[in-house]
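FORM 7B: Structural annotation worksheet

SECTION A. Query
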Amino acid sequence: MERQRVLPILMIALGMLTSCSSKSGGTAPINFPKGFLWGVSTAAEQSEGGITNNDWYAWEQMGNTPPVGLADDFYHLYAQDFTNAQAMHLNAFRLTFEWSRVVPTRPADIYAPLSVSDPAVDMTAVAHYHDIINSLIAHGLTPVVTLTHYTVPQWVDNPGAYDKASNSFTDGSLGGWTNTATAYAFANYAGFMAQQFSTTVKYWLTENEPLPDTLAGYVLGQYPPGFMNISYLTATTMPFSASVVTVVKNMIMGHALAYHEIHAVEPGAMVSIAKNSIFASARPNDPASTAAANAFDHAYNLTYLDAVTKGVFDDGLTGTTNTEIHPEWANTLDYIGVNYYSDDYVVPFAGILIPINAVPCDPTIGAVIPLGSLGCPAQNPPETQGLTEILVEYAQRYHLPMLITENGYGKADPVGKTKYIVQNIMAVKDAIDQGADILGYMYWTMDYDYEWTSGYAQNFGLFYVDDFTSCTKPDCGLVPNTATDFARTPVQPAVDVYSSIAAGNSISPSIIDQYGH
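SECTION B. Predicted structure
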């Protein structure tokens, strides 16, 4: 009996001692689930270099964006990047199979399955991607493969061949995602690549950021094919009598068809999209902003995901309009790939993005319309809280595992980059603690890279590329070529800190104390 009384007293004393230790400045480590994926993300157009037959190259030749050149020359230097990732104790790496390399010419029948004997398929390109995947695995890295990351072959979309007078493409290209045929062509490419890589690739991402792709290419006119539809998202002004809503539907169809093609080859595959997610915040004490934030969240974050999980598509984007039922789209996500960069205030605005009538205070919109004129505050809320909130929202709505497929910091501030990584990973753990099933975290990106219309003006990379570091504004006259010094130099302390986290599957107290606040 006496022993039974002593044990509770000891436990209480131990608890008091632990509490005192915590109050006196002790910090507990933040541990992650066993098997957690720690990685980096890349994209073919932004890192491989030398791609000359996709729509982005045509867009570049039209003078609409800074030239890419050889980018980071990942096409030749991939093993060096894998060695660096391995040295950092990472266990995952995201890359793209560039569609325009694999299928550079239009198949005779875009509705027919592709094969190794099809003259439209470049088996040399396929062999090169086999070499890359085999090297990646040899370095102890799990492949996460994207099938289209903003770019498509020119036979799918050639913006240089668009004739405004006839509202058609004069070279016979499909017209990008305005054409339902693109969804079928994409699915056949996905099925072919699944046949080639089913034994080496488990994690697939069919499409990267379909909503930003739609916004940039079919709403704001900044990316190919360059259509401007910023007012009415339901207006049928594009080829094939397509509206912006049509484009979204065709991209959903392309994903769903690709999902089924991949699973027909490998039932155990894990297939998703990389879903750009903006946490929609309301301005404090502003009911109109609250309503706008809810409307934007529904249209931007949930409409696509509802379609590919529940088979229900809100064709009016408002949550109060007619819906379409597509059982063939339902249950075509095995996990949710989450790209996250921003927590934005959302303001009501009746003049653009109709029928949503709500606009995020986001730099993408700011490139077209001054945000101040929309009523946007000078600064958005902190990103980290929004990351936790969007992950918890998805967990509660969809009950699927999630993988952070992108999260990155593009400023030339190494300490800022380090804090960003640590604090966003802490936000991920907060979501896990609230019940979210998170498979891993992948930082964007490995090396200083090409960032679309910003050219080489941003520095998301964990490694500098030596000749790029003097570039401070878009273009900068920089076009990487064979004379470029592509030597990779680690950005410190970010590389060492991320390496420590990956090695221990944990954020240590010293890292939390130095960079977590």
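SECTION C. Observations
Residues 30-515 form a domain with the TIM Barrel fold (CATH 3.20.20.80). The first strand starts at residue 30 and ends at 31.

SECTION D. Sign-off
Analyst initials: ____
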